[in-house]
Design brief:
The chain is elongated. It is α+β, with helices and mostly antiparallel strands. The chain contains 4 helices and 4 strands. The longest helix has 12 residues. The chain has one domain.
Length: 132
C-alpha cells in the first residue's frame, strides 16, 4: 500500500497551553560531583573530609596483628598522574586510570616487655601502591 507524504510524516499536534519545552539538565553533573566528592583528589591530604575513599580507609584501619605485636595505620592517600591522556587511551584501547598510593604506618610493639602496656619498638611509614 502506498502512503502519501503527509501520512509518512505523521504530523504532530500540540494541545498544550505552553508552547516551549523544558531545558534538559546536564545529567552527567550528578555523577561527576559524586565522583569528585568520593575521591577528593583536588584537596590536600591533611584537609580531606571524612567521606568517600578517605572514610573507607579510616573505617578499615588500623589493622592489628593476631598476637597484638604490630599495628598498621592509615595516614593518607594520593592519586598519581595517568600514564596516557584520554585520546591515547581511546586509540590504544587502554583504560584511563591513575595509580592509587596509600601512605601507611607500621607500629611494632616490643613483645618481650613485661606488663599489659607494651612499649613501641619500631615505627615505619611508607607509601604503598594499591592499584589503579
Amino acid at each position: 500500500m502506498a502512503y502519501s507524504f503527509t501520512e509518512k510524516k505523521r504530523i504532530r499536534k500540540n494541545f498544550g497551553k505552553q508552547p516551549g519545552i523544558l531545558d534538559t539538565p546536564y545529567l552527567l553533573a550528578i555523577q561527576l560531583d559524586s565522583y569528585r566528592t568520593f575521591l577528593q583528589a583536588e584537596r590536600p591530604e591533611d584537609a580531606r573530609d571524612p567521606v568517600g575513599l578517605h572514610a573507607a580507609f579510616r573505617s578499615v584501619f588500623p589493622i592489628t596483628s593476631y598476637s597484638g605485636n604490630a599495628s598498621l595505620e592509615y595516614v593518607s592517600y594520593r592519586l598519581g598522574e595517568p600514564g596516557f591522556d584520554v585520546k591515547e587511551c581511546q586509540l590504544r584501547g587502554l583504560t584511563y586510570a591513575a595509580p592509587l598510593r596509600v601512605k601507611v604506618r607500621l607500629i611494632v610493639l616490643d613483645k618481650e616487655a613485661p606488663g599489659a602496656k607494651k612499649p613501641v619498638k619500631d615505627v615505619r611509614e611508607q607509601e604503598v601502591y594499591l592499584g589503579e
